[in-house]
Amino acid sequence: MDSDEGMTGGDAELLRNLGFPRIRMHHPFNHFDFTKAGRRILVIGPMGSGKTEYSARIWRDGAVARKKGKAAESATSRAGADRRDIFVVRSSLDAARFPDYPADALAYRGGYERCGDRLGQARDSFALESLIAENPGAGTWIVDEAAFYDERVAYLMQDESERRGLTFVCPTLVLNFRREIFNQTARLLLETATDVFPLSAYCEHPDCLADSLYTYRYYLMDGVECPALYFDPLIIIGGDRAKEDGREPNYCTRCDAHHYLPGKEYSYFTLKPLGEAAARGELKPLLAELNAIAGNIEKSRLHASLRSRYLECADPCATQMDALRVPCVAERALVYLYAEQNLLSAEQLRSLVADLGLDREYLMRRLSDNRRPVEL
Length: 376
Fold this sequence. Notes:
By secondary structure, this protein is an alpha/beta fold.
């Protein structure tokens, strides 16, 4: 588990001498090495690839390593912190996941580990810093979904690991459902990491066994798979279970061929320029497009863009068009322009919502998810 290097020639020769056939030999799946100080380990991959289960293995290895004697303690300790002593930090933004498990569980698909008082929650780097100060003996910190934190977290972990030898293990997404770097925090985590372990999964398309590295977001409408549009809200907080509400997303892993992402071209050709015009005070063109999306989507420029790319083409894909079946498409576009692109003022947002009669509850929930709350 703690190495991605191939077997050395000597190791392979030994196995052949013991009677193993001449086949391709890989490095064994090692237990975690608690003797190495000051590591910042990223465990990356799509949803369902086993990132949290990887962390649970480290937790179990710690339980075994703590039974060793004083000599082992001297090899795994520095500045009063023993790296066999593990503390798990869950993101408070992700608290709705796995509601059926015990409150002190490090839960993953298919199981969990009970962590007792060695489990806490944090919303940002300041809360994590407080937990570290309150638990000075913990030498290994599993920080789940670290990309959800503010950018400061990357340098906090770097400072603590270099100063006290602490090890940080971060099972986290670094790519969002758009197949882009999740955010600036994810970028900084990659820049400051000492080790990266990428995990993959089977593509979850029913007809595919290809390897997948991508998280796919979709909605279910009357049993139909509706891909998330490119400008769907970047962060949507919710539980890790199937939903058939077109306002609440589902996730799975998909390979390149089955990862549908309609509307990217529209976002840059049309939606963002309309937002930029609104930022200059020209609100009417955006209002007209959102009015079409909310009232008669087939008359919108969005529908025209998707139709030309996914139906009027050499290789039609009706699944891409199903993205328009979900509710609140205009609301999603506003979240993108306001919370992510910072092109609309709060006053303009309120004006558009009032003029178009949009879903205020949906908007306020999604704006809060993306840390740009507005009372509408």
